[in-house]
């Protein structure tokens, strides 16, 4: 897997700095040479080296004091500080460590030993900057990788990846199980990226992959496919067979939550010019949000057409049908929802409700399970709606005194709200459900 190119600053005389640079460039690092500590300060204004190799004593300054300055001035992650000491006195070398050096080497060090020691420090730095859970490169290495992409002449693409519904999974199975899912996703990324591609772990379930524009779609499809193949192993068989988890909210609210899937947002340098690594992360997350509006594991790329709702449709009032046999409750719901700006109709009959749904455009139905119809109660009405291709898009909130929330959700209801309920809670859930349906 590709990693950011290490950057090394050498502070030494022109002759020796060039010799050390020749050695270290063979390790694959990018080397910057300066001959004074003043030049080093100027370079550090825009360069973030991984390692600084410096002379302990120079005509224009003391390398040991410069170690102190670096430690005091630079925030995490500061560079590894290596002093080259010409003295053979052990006490003087030990004293250099007290000034803040991470390592002290002899000025006459063997070339191969210098290269190996530097590589060992860089490897250790990479481990420290990796995510502790997955061992993938963490946010700082991701930033460095993106910054190198931004100045590269080669085209590139970035995939922003995270898991849908992880919070509900953690609430059901526990955080340790959620961590295992995150580690499984990281293993998939390591398996799918090539030696010339990069995969990093920002935090929680937030990942970033860097690839070529030509590979971006195929790679996204492969990641989604592999995750869908293994994710069901992290559920109990009953949950897999049912096809969803039950999320519990305040006031006894229950909702069906789909099993975990992946959302991928894709951006590339051929589609637009990015100003910074933050711009890349923000834009790719915007497309990832659009992917979340789809069903299951999916991706959205910046070169794909995105369907947008027309302003006329967005300005149309949402239509709600209240199916409630209790007249007082029906009036209360109608008045409250109307004050919120919804277009509301009321009926106490399941058959009438079905006819209204077929004849009119209904966005949401508030449904009591206990209806007076002989042939169809609330449960049967809900099943009928969800089995009808034209009506299944209607959101159903089962507002009922029936204590079995599983029965409500298994019949197809999107939300179970037990009576008596808090009106602000109902309005909040209605708003969220309508927003998700509208998306």
Report on this structure.
The structure is a single chain. By secondary structure, the chain is an alpha/beta fold. The chain has three domains: 7-128, 3-Layer(aba) Sandwich (Rossmann fold); 139-245 and 257-301, Alpha-Beta Plaits, CATH 3.30.70.270; 312-438, 3-Layer(aba) Sandwich (Rossmann fold), CATH 3.40.50.2300. The chain has helices at residues 14-25, 37-43, 63-73, 90-98, 111-128, 139-150, 166-173, 175-192, 216-231, 237-242, 277-292, 311-315, 327-339, 350-359, 378-387, 405-410, 423-438, and strands at residues 7-11, 30-34, 51-55, 57-58, 61-62, 80-85, 103-106, 157-164, 198-203, 206-211, 244-248, 254-258, 261-268, 298-301, 319-323, 343-347, 364-367, 395-400, 415-418. The longest helix is centred in the N-terminal third of the chain and has 18 residues, at 111-128. It is elongated, with a radius of gyration of 31 Å. Residues 308-315 have low confidence and may be disordered.
């Amino acid at each position: 897997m590709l990693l950011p190119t290490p950057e090394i600053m050498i502070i030494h005389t022109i002759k020796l700095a060039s010799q050390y640079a020749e050695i270290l460039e063979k390790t694959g690092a990018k080397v910057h040479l300066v001959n004074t500590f003043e030049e080093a300060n100027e370079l550090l204004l825009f360069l973030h080296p991984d390692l600084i190799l410096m002379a302990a004593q120079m005509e224009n300054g003391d390398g040991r004091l410069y170690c102190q300055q670096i430690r005091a001035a630079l925030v995490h992650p500061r560079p590894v500080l290596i002093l080259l000491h010409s003295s053979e006195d052990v006490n003087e070398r030990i004293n250099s460590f007290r000034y803040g050096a991470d390592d002290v080497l002899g000025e006459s060090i063997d070339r191969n030993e210098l290269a190996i020691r530097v590589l060992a420090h860089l490897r250790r730095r990479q481990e420290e900057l990796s995510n502790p859970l997955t061992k993938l490169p963490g946010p700082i290495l991701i930033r460095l990788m993106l910054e190198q992409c931004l100045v590269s002449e080669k085209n590139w693409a970035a995939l922003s990846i995270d898991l849908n519904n992880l919070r509900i999974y953690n609430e059901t199975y526990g955080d340790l199980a959620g961590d295992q899912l995150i580690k499984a996703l990281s293993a998939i990324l390591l398996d799918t990226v090539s030696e010339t591609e990069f995969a990093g772990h920002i935090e929680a379930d937030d990942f970033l992959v860097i690839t070529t524009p030509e590979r971006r779609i195929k790679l996204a499809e492969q990641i989604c496919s592999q995750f869908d193949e293994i994710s069901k192993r992290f559920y109990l068989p009953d949950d897999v067979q049912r096809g969803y988890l039950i999320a519990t909210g305040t006031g006894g609210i229950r909702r069906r939550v789909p099993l975990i899937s992946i959302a991928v947002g894709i951006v590339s340098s051929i589609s637009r010019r990015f100003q910074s690594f933050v711009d890349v992360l923000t834009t790719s997350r915007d497309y990832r949000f659009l992917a979340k509006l789809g069903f299951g594991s999916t991706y959205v790329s910046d070169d794909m057409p995105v369907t947008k709702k027309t302003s006329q449709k967005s300005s149309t009032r949402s239509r709600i049908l209240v199916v409630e046999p209790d007249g007082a409750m029906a009036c209360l719901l109608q008045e409250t929802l109307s004050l919120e700006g919804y277009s509301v109709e009321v009926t106490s009959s399941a058959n009438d409700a079905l006819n209204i749904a077929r004849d009119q455009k209904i966005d949401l139905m508030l449904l009591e399970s206990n209806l007076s119809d002989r042939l169809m109660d609330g449960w049967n009405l809900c099943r009928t709606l969800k089995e009808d291709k034209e009506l299944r898009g209607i959101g159903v909130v089962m507002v009922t005194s029936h204590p079995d929330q599983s029965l409500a959700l298994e019949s197809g209801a999107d939300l179970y709200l037990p009576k008596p309920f808090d009106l602000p809670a109902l309005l909040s859930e209605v708003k969220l459900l309508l927003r998700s349906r509208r998306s």
